[in-house]
Write a structure and sequence with these properties.
71% of the residues lie in helices and 0% in strands. By secondary structure, the protein is mainly alpha-helical. Helix 1 runs antiparallel to helix 2, helix 3 packs antiparallel against helix 4 and helix 4 crosses helix 7.
């Protein structure tokens, strides 16, 4: 339960700060696109340092799926982790709705270009994110001096260049919370499927550059 609560708290912080920056930027005009991107990267970095030793600080169902596919996480842990992440995301968006009742989207991710552009971008940037995570993590845990900086940096730069087109979600829970509470459910399937595909594709990529035994069982736990 401590791991599930950790994932819930961490994902709450991610969605509250990240989508909160979008909402407050829309309301006040004081937070730029770069500021939003940095907010997402910094809050993830902070949560990795705070929670990495407890649950691994996945904060993302796609990352949890990637760790499972890499045989670094037991199958029985996947559903509780994802459940905690989704609860945290929905709770964060609920609080933002209370604070900013007039805001329509609450930072929901929606394609800014074509569906194909957004899908491919989400697959590729999630692939990059998961590839980095697998190479800087210890087993199924994102922890250590380099992990927070590396992972937070990927999220920040991906949000900077891909955000205007796809929303740069990389995270089904991050997209679920704002979409569910704001009622903007159109295209939500894309932000469930594309990050999952990207995370799964990162596993063979990680194996291809590491020593034999990586992501094949007990060696990575």
């Amino acid at each position: 339960m401590k791991k599930v609560v950790s994932e819930c708290i961490g994902t709450f912080a991610l969605v509250f700060a990240g989508t909160g920056a979008i909402v407050i930027g829309d309301v006040t005009g004081t937070i730029s696109h770069v500021g939003v991107s940095l907010t997402f990267g910094l809050v993830v970095m902070a949560m990795i340092y705070a929670l990495g030793d407890i649950s691994g600080a996945h904060l993302n169902p796609a990352v949890t799926l990637g760790f499972w596919a890499a045989r670094r996480l037991e199958g029985r842990d996947v559903a509780p982790y994802v459940g905690g992440q989704c609860v945290g995301a929905v709770a964060a968006s609920t609080l933002l709705r209370f604070l900013f009742p007039a805001h329509q989207a609450l930072g929901a991710t929606r394609p800014g270009g074509t569906i194909a552009q957004s899908f491919v971008l989400e697959v590729v940037i999630t692939w990059i994110l998961m590839f980095v995570i697998l190479n800087v993590s210890t087993g199924s845990r994102e922890k250590g001096i380099t992990a927070g900086i590396a992972i937070g940096s990927v999220i920040a730069f991906a949000a900077m260049f891909a955000g205007p087109v796809s929303g740069a979600s990389m995270n089904p829970a991050r997209s679920l919370g704002p979409a569910l509470i704001s009622g903007n459910l159109e295209g939500l399937w894309l932000y469930f499927l594309a990050p999952a595909v990207g995370a799964l594709l990162a596993v063979p990529a990680c194996r291809s550059v590491n020593e034999e035994g990586c992501c094949t069982g007990e060696a990575c736990r």
